[in-house]
Amino acid sequence: DKLDGLGETTGTSAAPASAAADDALRALVSLGYSSADAERGVRAALDAGGGGKAATELIRTALAKLGGR
User: The pTM is what?
Assistant: First the structure.
């Protein structure tokens, strides 16, 4: 799973991996983002306090972090 390890503490990020994060990752890949870019966007969304948010909110935040490509 591409989001394994998102819940691990590395630096200041300690956001848990979740079904919403996995759904957000898949949605971003479906929109044409590479897996690496999608993962970067989801990680940024989680780091921005999105750990308990729904997939739609994570996607919205990730898109903003990725520059709205």
Answer: 0.69
